């Protein structure tokens, strides 16, 4: 298969991001060439270094503002695959209507540009579980057939009073709706698929040089391995998937020209206690708080407890690809190993006084 794909070029937008970086790596490992977009060339140095073993197979192109129509026209030249991950959205201080309009505009810009390039064979959208899951529905198992109609309805009826989190969800739903509407209306020649991951952890391609620069959902594990409570946002609905599995399904979709499919990517139910139990099993003398082992989740397989009435079903990904998810234990341990050197540099007093709760208070989900 390497001979068939070695000359194919894939565009990955926002390539310095957590998911995008691992996605670029996965394509390169599969024999593709990758062109990654960044807003500023200086931000790509660490990513370029991490992927330097692939030489000229990986290249960077600067796209200052992906929101501008035709901004990706030059970057898409010669590409057979387009992976839209970049989504420059501010959750706090953002108004609902412009946020949703911008999210839709980005998707339409990408697809319109792809339609102008005959080389494009596949387009994949990085969506989110937030476009699927809604609250207040009672017992329900969410699959790729579901949509977050709650966020849609709130946006229609009361956009001026939406919280930052609900604005985020409404924008994500609208963006994916636009993606599928484009397919239905324009019937492009390229295949189209969307990926809807739950909260994502797993080791990053590039580890920041300071714990204060950690971004995204990996902060949940980092907090717990530091002996602290994890950020509250991850406690109420702790469904997880490894970033490497997200990258894998993206490559699968491009490689197989998967068309008209959504993939809910979720492998485990991992509340704070589950993280603590995994870390203490491999590091019994670590600073991780013991808690009540086994509390709040079901085994084997890190499943939701019986009293959890909203379930995420990520089995379609396994059925279609023929490959199971990376185990929850492996994902937690690999993430912790990646960040442990940064925690070691903080010194012991930060754990004793628990003052670093303030440090970790910024650890909000960047993509869910």
Task: Furnish the topology, listing elements before pairings.
Layout: H1 2-5, E1 9-12, H2 18-29, E2 33-38, H3 45-50, E3 58-62, E4 81-84, H4 96-115, E5 122-126, E6 140-142, H5 149-157, H6 164-186, E7 191-197, E8 199-201, H7 219-225, E9 239-242, H8 243-255, E10 261-265, E11 268-269, H9 272-282, E12 310-312, H10 315-321, H11 328-344, H12 349-352, H13 357-360
Parallel strand pairs: 1-2, 1-4, 2-3, 4-5, 5-7, 6-12, 7-10, 8-9
Antiparallel strand pairs: 9-11
Helix pairs in contact: 2-8, 4-6, 5-6, 7-9, 9-11
Count of distinct strands: 12
Using the alpha-carbon principal axes, give the shape: globular
Strand percentage lies at 5-15%
Kindly provide the radius of gyration, computed on alpha-carbon positions and rounded to a whole number of angstroms.
20 Å
> Which stretches are poorly predicted, pLDDT < 50 over at least 5 residues?
1-5, 349-368
Spatially, the strands of the biggest sheet line up as 3-2-1-4-5-7-10
For the termini, the CA-CA separation is 33 Å
Largest sheet: 7 strands, parallel
Average pLDDT number:
90
* Helix/strand order: HEHEHEEHEEHHEEHEHEEHEHHHH
Structure description:
The relative contact order is 0.13. The chain is globular and about 55 Å long. It is an alpha/beta fold and 368 residues long. It is built from 13 helices and 12 strands. The protein has a 7-stranded parallel sheet with strand order 3-2-1-4-5-7-10, sandwiched between helices. It has a 3-stranded mixed sheet with strand order 8-9-11. Helix 2 (18-29) links the parallel strand 1 (9-12) and strand 2. Helices cover 37% and strands 14% of the residues. This is NAD-dependent epimerase/dehydratase domain-containing protein. Belongs to the NAD(P)-dependent epimerase/dehydratase family. Dihydroflavonol-4-reductase subfamily. One of its GO terms (molecular function) is oxidoreductase activity, acting on the CH-OH group of donors, NAD or NADP as acceptor. It holds the Pfam family Epimerase.
């Amino acid at each position: 298969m390497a001979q068939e794909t070695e000359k194919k070029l894939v565009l990955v937008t926002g390539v310095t991001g957590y998911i995008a970086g691992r996605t670029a790596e996965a394509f390169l490992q599969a024999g593709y060439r990758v062109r990654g977009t960044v807003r500023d060339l200086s931000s790509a140095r660490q990513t370029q270094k991490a992927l330097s073993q692939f030489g000229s197979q990986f290249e960077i192109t600067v796209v200052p503002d992906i929101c501008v129509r035709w901004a990706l026209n030059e970057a898409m030249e010669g590409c057979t695959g387009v992976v839209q991950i970049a989504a420059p959205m501010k959750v706090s201080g953002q108004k609902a209507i412009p946020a949703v309009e911008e999210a839709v505009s980005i998707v339409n810009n990408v697809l319109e540009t792809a339609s102008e390039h005959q080389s494009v064979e596949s387009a994949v959208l990085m969506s989110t579980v937030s476009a699927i899951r809604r609250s207040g529905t009672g017992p329900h198992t969410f699959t790729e057939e579901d949509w977050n109609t709650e966020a849609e309805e709130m946006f229609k009826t009361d956009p001026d009073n939406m919280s930052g989190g609900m604005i985020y969800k409404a924008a994500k739903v609208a963006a994916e709706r636009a993606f599928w509407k484009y397919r239905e209306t324009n019937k492009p020649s390229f295949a189209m698929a969307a990926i809807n991951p739950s909260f994502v952890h797993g080791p990053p391609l590039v580890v920041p040089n300071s714990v204060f620069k950690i971004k995204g959902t990996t902060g949940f594990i980092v907090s717990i391995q530091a002996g602290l409570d994890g950020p509250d946002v991850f406690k109420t609905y702790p469904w997880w998937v490894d970033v490497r599995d997200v990258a894998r399904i993206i490559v699968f979709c491009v490689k197989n020209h998967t068309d008209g499919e959504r993939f809910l990517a979720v492998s485990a139910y991992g509340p704070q206690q589950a993280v603590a139990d995994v870390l203490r099993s491999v590091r019994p003398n670590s600073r991780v708080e013991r808690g009540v082992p086994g509390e709040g989740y079901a085994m084997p397989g890190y499943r939701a407890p019986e009293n959890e009435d909203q379930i995420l079903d990520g089995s379609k990904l396994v059925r279609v690809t023929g490959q199971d998810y990376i185990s929850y234990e492996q994902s937690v341990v690999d993430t912790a190993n990646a960040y442990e050197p940064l925690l070691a540099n903080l010194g012991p007093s930060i754990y004793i006084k628990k003052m670093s709760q303030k440090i970790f208070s910024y650890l909000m989900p960047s993509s869910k």
